[in-house]
Design goal:
Alpha-D-Glucose-1,6-Bisphosphate, Chain A, domain 4; 30% helix; single chain; 6-stranded antiparallel beta sheet; 6 helices; 5-stranded antiparallel beta sheet; START-like_dom_sf; globular; SRPBCC domain-containing protein; 29% strand; alpha+beta; 242 residues
Length: 242
């Protein structure tokens, strides 16, 4: 690694071959990457564009270079594997430079979702909810009501959040702009809260939430999604954000 490289990595308590397969099988990728959404293309098309089209793969070395130049490596470790992403240098794709930090933060979230999905659920099917938008100067942790969760990874928390839900679990990870919480009530699930970086298109920055739930029925998760989405939209309207 050189001084100007941007690296995102995490250790995963799973065999390296299993982790590599999770990066190469689109059916498994959708169980940790991103979130489900409805539009002309959806998550499956996003996965094809990122992990299938135009990639350079060295399966023997477990190295994958995706479109745009970001390079994944999976290395066997003492307790499983280490997944490392070395980002293409900023400036190699000027059209995406304004979103460079967003992509880095996105990979941080998604590697943690990969780790959680493998370690806690062996990449079982999940349900996902995504919310984002401006914050009016507050952090996403403050908006949801978990700013008081200040413990290190592995520490327990309980919180009555702004949606009206009582959540409990442990701190899954922390980074300078993100907080990941396990949610016992959802399987357990994983809640990733991220402060979106400022850029030319988003001068005030923003907030992002990705909620992954396991073992929930469609009606139960739909009710939760509606409750959280209604809270988020009402907050936006009250703040004059939309």
């Amino acid at each position: 690694m050189t001084a100007d490289e941007t690296v995102v990595e995490t250790a995963v308590a799973a065999p390296a071959a299993r982790v590599w397969r999770a990066l190469r099988d689109p059916t498994l990728i959708r169980r940790w990457h991103g979130w489900e959404y409805d539009d002309e293309h959806g998550l499956d098309e996003e996965i094809r564009q990122i992990f299938v089209d135009g990639v350079v793969e060295d399966a023997a070395a477990m190295v994958l270079t995706v479109h745009g130049g970001d390079r994944f490596t999976v290395t066997p470790g003492a307790e499983g594997a280490v997944v490392r992403i070395v980002r293409a240098a900023k400036g190699s794709n000027p059209e995406w430079d304004d979103w460079y930090d967003d992509v880095t933060e996105g990979w941080t979230s998604f590697l943690q979702q990969l780790k959680f999905g493998l370690e806690r659920h062996d990449l079982a099917e999940r349900c996902t909810l995504y919310l984002d938008g401006p914050t009016g100067g507050a952090t996403v942790m403050e908006l949801l009501g978990v700013a008081g969760v200040t413990g290190p990874p592995g520490s327990a928390y309980t919180a009555l959040v702004s949606t009206g839900d009582a959540l409990s679990g442990t701190v899954w990870f922390r980074s300078p702009k993100q907080l990941g919480l396990t949610v016992d009530q959802l399987g357990p699930g994983l809640l990733v809260l991220a402060i979106q970086p400022e850029n030319a298109q988003r001068p005030g920055g923003g907030a992002q939430m990705i909620l992954s739930a396991y073992g929930r029925g469609a009606e139960e998760f739909a009710a939760l999604s509606d409750r959280w989405t209604n809270w988020w939209n009402a907050r936006d309207q009250a703040a004059g954000c939309c």
